[in-house]
């Protein structure tokens, strides 16, 4: 038989894929899925950092949408993909509008879209301000634990900035076993400081972890704290004196732009991801611009967890996390799975309308 006329082998017929579904998960559902699970979530964030450190993730640069008529505002897109036993892709879309605070709204709002690993179809949209705050707080609690292992465990904590993120960080520290002899509070807004003080009392901090003090002076707060949490909306450095840190505290520099480069250059610096953190005029980015190199960086949190880097005890140690989209995906997928497990997934019928290739 002429081989050119022979029947062409046909590929095996692929089984029909199930019709993709799409769900919307509200902030209330997100909160219920995460509430009281601080230890589990810190473990999840640690595992995700390790996956990222091992290269089992894709975390491209964040994209910033800025506005000429609203120079302090921005919306950021964080695309990412994370592997491991439950792979997922997706995008966080988070806005930061500092002017919201004056009207009583939180600065940030966000949604998270999860995409199926195999088909690429989006399968859920989640309210994500809570997810974002959760992964930030879990990351901070994880860093506080690992970075304090070679030094006396801090017993005096100070919060510089007293909004939503500060509240979540306190919740995660308390939920993972931290107790403090004193809790210091400072904010440029007296109302915000008073509100956070009230939260701490309602949360049971007073009488369980020592005295709560509202500091009028930023310097006083820093000098009286072994663990300092920066959670402000600052867009440029406003803390400039390295002498404030002469007692070598552990610093969770969550808001990224509070510290002058001179403070970082006098400290040991740990970041979550080098390339991500040294951009967008963060304090580490300014330090790089000032020195022309990255020698001031000691490594990443994954380096510390893997034993490749040991933070010194005789210098301030500063953790500056840019915030990785892979963490949002990991926490978001955790929420999705919990909502499914509870039988409370709200599917949007016919969200995907035309699924036939040829009509």
Fold and architecture overview:
There is one protein chain. The chain has 359 residues and is an alpha/beta fold. Helices cover 32% and strands 22% of the residues. β4 and β5 form a beta hairpin. α1 crosses α11.
List the defining traits of the structure above.
22% strand, seven-stranded mixed sheet, alpha/beta, eight-stranded parallel sheet, disordered N terminus, 359 residues
Indicate the structural class: alpha/beta
Helix content: 25-40%
> Strands across the major sheet, in which order?
10-9-8-11-12-15-13-14
Mean pLDDT: 92
Principal-axis shape: globular
SS element count, helices:
11
Assembly context of the chains: single chain
Which range does the strand content fall in? 15-25%
Tally of strands: 15
Main beta-sheet annotation:
8 strands, parallel
**Secondary-structure element pattern, one letter each:** EHHEEEEEEHEHEHEHEEHEHHEHEH
Q: What Rg, in angstroms, do the CA atoms define?
A: 23 Å
Low-pLDDT runs: 1-13
Question: Care to give the gist of this entry?
Answer:
It contains eleven helices and 15 strands. It is α/β, with parallel strands linked by helices and 359 residues long.
């Amino acid at each position: 038989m002429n081989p050119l006329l022979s029947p062409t082998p046909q590929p095996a017929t692929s089984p029909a894929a199930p019709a993709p579904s799409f769900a919307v998960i509200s902030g209330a559902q997100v909160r219920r899925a995460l509430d009281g699970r601080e230890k589990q979530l810190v473990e999840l964030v640690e595992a995700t950092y390790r996956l990222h450190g091992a290269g089992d993730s894709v975390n491209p640069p964040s994209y910033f949408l800025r506005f000429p008529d609203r120079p302090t505002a921005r919306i950021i897109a964080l695309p990412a993909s994370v592997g491991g036993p439950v792979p997922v892709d997706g995008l966080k879309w988070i806005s930061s509008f500092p002017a919201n605070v004056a009207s009583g709204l939180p600065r940030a709002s966000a949604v998270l879209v999860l995409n199926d690993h195999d088909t690429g179809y989006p399968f859920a949209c989640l309210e994500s301000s809570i997810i974002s705050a959760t992964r930030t707080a879990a990351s901070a609690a994880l860093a506080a634990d690992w970075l304090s292992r070679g030094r006396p465990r801090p017993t005096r904590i100070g919060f510089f900035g007293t909004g939503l993120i500060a509240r979540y960080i306190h919740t995660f520290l308390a939920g993972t076993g931290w107790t403090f002899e004193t809790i210091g509070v400072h904010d440029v807004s007296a109302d915000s400081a008073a509100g956070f003080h009230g939260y701490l009392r309602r949360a049971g901090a007073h009488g369980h972890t020592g005295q709560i003090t509202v500091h009028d002076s930023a310097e006083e707060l820093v000098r009286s704290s072994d663990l300092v949490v920066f959670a402000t909306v600052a867009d440029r450095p406003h803390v400039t004196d390295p002498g404030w840190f002469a007692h070598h505290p552990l610093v969770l520099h969550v808001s990224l732009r509070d510290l002058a480069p001179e403070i970082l250059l006098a400290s040991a610096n740990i970041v979550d991801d080098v390339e991500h953190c040294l951009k967008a005029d963060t304090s580490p980015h300014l330090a790089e611009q000032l020195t022309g190199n990255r020698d001031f960086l000691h490594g990443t949190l994954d380096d510390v967890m893997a034993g490749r880097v040991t933070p010194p005890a005789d210098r301030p140690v500063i953790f500056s996390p840019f915030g990785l989209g892979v963490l949002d995906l990991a926490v978001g997928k955790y929420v999705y799975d919990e909502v499914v497990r509870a039988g409370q997934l709200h599917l949007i019928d016919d969200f995907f309308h035309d699924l036939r290739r040829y009509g």
